[in-house]
User: Fold these one by one.
Assistant:
Number 1:
Amino acid sequence: MKVLLAKIGLDGHDRGVKVIRDALTNEGIEVIYIGLHKTPEEIVNTAINEKVDVIGISSMTGAHNLIFQRVFELLNERGKNIPVFAGGIIPDGDIPKLKEMGIKEVFLPGTELKGIVEFIKGLS
Amino acid sequence: MAKVLVMKERKSRFTNLSNMEIKNVYTPEDIKDIDYSKDIGLPGEFPFTRGIHPTMYRGRLWTMRQFSGFGTAEDTNKRFKYLLKHGETGLSTAFDMPTLMGYDSDNYRAAGEVGVCGVAIDTIADMEILFDDIPLNEVTVSMTINAPAAILLSMYIAVADKRGIPLNKLGGTIQNDILKEYTAQKEWIFPPEPSLRLITDTIIYCARNLPKWHPVSISGYHIREAGSTAVQELAFTLYDGLTYVEEVIKRGLSIDEFAPRLSFFFNSHNDFFEEIAKFRAARRIWYREMKKRYNPKDERTMLLRFHTQTAGCSLTAQQPYNNIVRVTLQALSAVLGGTQSLHTDSMDETYAIPTEEAVRIALRTQQIIAHESGVANTVDPLGGSYYIENLTNKMEDAVYEYFKKLDDMGGMVSAIEKGFPQKEIKESAYSYQKEIDSKERIIVGVNDFIEEEKAPVEVFKTNPDVEKKQIQRLKDIKGNRDKKRLSRTLHDLKRAAKGDENLMPFIIEAVKSYATIGEICDVLKEIFGEYKEPIV
């Protein structure tokens, strides 16, 4: 199983995404973490080139609605149905909309690592 | 005689957040190596362990300074006035992500982020609105801005200049601490070397022109938020500070010309006593290093003055009202640690930027500590406590271990290039999370005392028209500028950036000609290049 992790938008809060990376790596899952300030284009291109099974995107900027929509547009354009999960600072009220868009799950602060890892394993 | 029953302890090992083992009780034995006059002393006297002023809060309370900014300059100007009306004593500006990264609001990378996490500033026109009707010669203004700090400071100077306020009357702070951007907050633009030049340029410019300004706020806050321990926060921050000092000295200034205006910014996290010990150790180490390295004549050079913010990363989305209690304890640590100014987080900040009501409670928390609790009646009330003094020593020892490692790596810039502080921080973040997952550490409402139902909190919504409005204003300004003047000032800036002149006067001229933050950064990127992070 291969997971792509990225930080989207311009903020630099990468504590959560790095903790998730370490948790997945310790479970023997291959993780490609491409770092901060990535655009939807950069994320989707890397996901396709690296043939990943799952995409995980961390957002703390409040621009999640717009940015995630763009991610799904790009995946659709390329005819790819790679599951996407999200984490970060996302108001509860936005979560149903994101799930409708196609996000498999949104992990908020305070979520237990084990649960996240199990969920991701179930995605591929 | 009946004996007191000795109960088995709840845990085999009690630790603080730096993973130091804490004993069940501390006695005179634990402070027997301390020399009172050399290691503790009186407040306002070396080594300043107990505080930088003899009277501390009996003389003046700390500045209550709530970090705020969102939407357009008009929106934030309104929030500033609201806070001042409710008794805040200083302003602190949050800029949006595009501003922090040096992008204009109409840049494609800014889409969706304009005015969301802070206020959007593109040109001096926005800055004028932001501080409309606010007396810049009376209120001190702090600006959380780093990579493009010289540009925002230039805009502030230009606004004051337009209003006829002399520069020597301007009081405030720019964060302007790029080293912790590479290790923690990660809002960078240029590589370390040219970034350090920009910082030394601002320090030197301020030393000569804005004597009441703090040109850099050396920040541990973000290092801690990124997951470091208290010890790592303290060690990396102080080492960053020493790095800046050395850079300015290399440019020919004497220590006393600029060091009295350096300030620090720390986090106040959950472990009450550990934080107090951290603040006390910070003052002592800074005093000792300044004294040893530079033997300054001005006592103020050796004083570590600092702002504190309660730990955003300690707030929980679950049962958000509990955050008010966490913030109270953290704020109390900061006050008992002798902070000069304080921001208390609002209970709803894991959801969005805070509502007015949440901010008011946060501010009231400080006012209750200041006026009701009695802790401000005497200076450093915990000084002499066996535990606190022992812990202060331990923090200091642990910091010096990190100093040695960083020295061996050839200094902070080379340690950053090797990914050392980044790796230390992310490892601490991971072990902290594992402790929570395994319930070694209990976080109320998160891994114990869990409730099914979330307490409903009202969530702040940014006006969705902000981006459109901001882009329109930018377009209007771009259409109405004197293009010749603009291209001349940008050309001059480019020439200066290639050489080694102080860039501040050139940036001030550029912002006065309505150059945007993005245009100025583009000129500098051409000469300086852009930073690429080593992923660790």
Note: Residues 64-77 of chain A form the longest helix (14 residues).
Number 2:
Amino acid sequence: MTLAGGGASEEAKPAGATQVEQEPKAFPEESRRSHEPLSFDEVFVTPAGPKGLEYTAKIKELNGRKICITGFMVRHADIDTSAFLFCATPRAYNEREEGLADSIPPQMLYVILPVRGHDAPAWRREKMTLYGTLELGSHQELSGRVSHLRLRCEAVTDARTGALLEVRKPIAFQSGRAVPLPSDVGALPRSDAPAPFFNPRRNRDNNLTPDTP
Amino acid sequence: MKLKHATHFIAALSGLSALSSAFAAPSVTRLNPPSALFSYNDSTPPYISRFLPAQRFDLQATIQADAGKTITSVVFKVNGVAVVPASGASAITSIGSDKFSATVRAYSNNTPGVKTLTVEATQSDSLQATATGNFEIASITLNAGRKAKNIIWVIGDGTGIAHRTAARIVSKGAALGKAVDPLAIDTLPVTGIVTTHSLNSIVTDSAPGAHCYSTGNKANNGQEGVFPDDTADKWDNPRVEHMGNYLARTQDKWLGIITTADVEDATPAAFAASTQDRGAGTGICDMYLDEAAANHNLHVLMGGGRKWFLPSTTGGSGRVNSSTASGADYVVPSDIQAGWSVPAGAVDPNRDLIADFQTAGFYYAPNLAGLNAMTGSETKLLGLFNSGHMDVSMDKIAYRRTSTAAAGSLISTYPDQPMLEEMTDKALSVLSKNANGFVIMIEAASVDKQAHNMDTERWVHDAIEMDKAVARCIAFQAANPDTLIIVTADHECAGINIIGGSLVTNSSLVTRAASGGGAAQLRAPVVGTYDNAKFPAYTNAADGYPTTMDVDYRMLIGYAGNSDRYEDWLTNPTYNQDPIARDTAGNFLVTGQQPGTGVQSAVHTASDIPLSAGGRGAAAFTGVFDNTDAFFKAMQAAIGGAK
């Protein structure tokens, strides 16, 4: 596991060395070479047929093997703290607005990171190259989204420089992360509840009675 | 004596205890349909819930029982007369925490007027709870003229007045103080202003924003075809009969639903589905066939969202194996089945819904070529042109012109997506085969979606696409005069307005956008207001769409409902990129009032929206009125007729 910022093995740390000093600056070259490059164009046969999508021969070959792929984190707020969405182009997905009726490409990669404390993936804008093991097949994720390709991620790197990137941050520091709404924010005032602070209908000429139901 | 006094005191305490127990009575905490009488003890109009004569809706009450007690019987009374439910169409269900939900399904009333609804619940110890609400049965004037045989609703999602103005300036032009030509929408003779609040907020989302047109009633945000209840179950809420079901049942009309969004999105689903979760895609799409095709005469369904129709093991499927998760499948309780004559539903992630539609007689078109291959004899049409939302007008047109797919679009995967006007033509040709007429909802969905994303060029383009669909509807109406056309929105999106025109050429903008000079380069030297806005000039190509959106001295748009965004006034090369992550080279950050959650996105506003109408019954759509009024005006034309 060579995710920066805590992903490095504790056993490998020399006595007296700090964590920062211990972190590799880049994904080791020998590790890079062991990962087969894959592009988002090589996921499904395109254009799509009249019904479902078919995996390409190449990606079927790569199922279960180590791959690397370049793209961008989707900016959104997933409830799954161990995963993020990854696409070919920079993309925003307003989950609260759209639900799962969206414009996310079916080629989207569901990236699974090792869980670390109270951290979760936080959006970064860099073009990234990810390294990990590819897994194909439909799977219903925690969010309800059905993923069709997943990456058990070993390393996140800056696609331009090759430097390792840390995408996990403490959830408490992610101000933009979605806060779940109450399931029924709009229940009308209950008859056994205290009178509402302001009865919107009380100022009407024909309704000058007290607010209390 | 002391002892005697003490005994009396104990007896008195015991009496108090019994009295206290007697006051711990059950209570009614919710009564559906919603009313101001129940919520605010206000019996005066406007009445929150209104229905057509014979339109069906559920009666529902939530009763809080005393601890450890149960609710043994519930009686609903309308004007003092007990409602007798159909066999199996009622239930008293424990919903936890000593709460009970009582329902009578598919009630209807034929007599116009305001009705008092009373619920009387009896607890296991014989204590009772009662509550009172009201609703109105609307009056339809019969034999008021010729009936509207066909009703066409065109909904520009999020399309406020400024969205229309922007589309007119770009596609028709303005000079010397006048529009060069009107939009097709502008030629509709009747105009009204519509208020859009939902049941639980001044700002609606698209689910209640469309539910109001389909049912004549208010819903909570996120909910469609139902009133809110107190259960987590997405599928058991009290229902309201949709226009399509009502007109199929009473007039044998057909229903069509077409959209540029995923077909399970809020606006299209609000015309056929019944759920408290607008995101429950698997179940909503199953309902289109199981309920709408069976009971609403759904004959046309087109848009994106193919993922919900594919077995879950198929590449690209979005079908889930749960009735509670996001994207949920549906299972309805037995009282709904009995009351509404619908199947139970099932969690069936491997259902091949396209095949099931085909078995039910639907012609299936996966793309424009499929639409164009229709023989003309088809009476049922399913079109699914994208995995999720269809790509937007600007990118579809660009691909037709140059075979170049916009970055971030799905056009490489789904290259042959029809335009909304092409879908409209096919839908009208199918639906007009019914001698009894039809009702259709045509949605230009991405006016809203791209306004959320503050992607000016893309939402303007989609508003133009919408206008072209309206033009096809007007042509149809001219040949079929007993057709009512209503063009409106569900809400305004993004607080959009036209703030002026650019002071510079496109090439100057390109230079400034790359300069990193921020406001010094991209605000004062660029934003021309008042006289300096002049008249931005765009041209149309042979396909009828703008040759380019990147003209010199272009129209400039501001957003009042905005989040933070970088702005360089240029067309964004990448589709659906985060407004805070694009256009950064210019370094002109426009901060917004709303914070954005997860992503930076503009929001819906509570502004009133425009409505244009033409054809049979259109004259009623004037003035300022509530969105639910539009339903009753349309139904007056369909049921009672209009001059």
Note: Residues 1-22 of chain B have pLDDT under 50 and may be disordered.
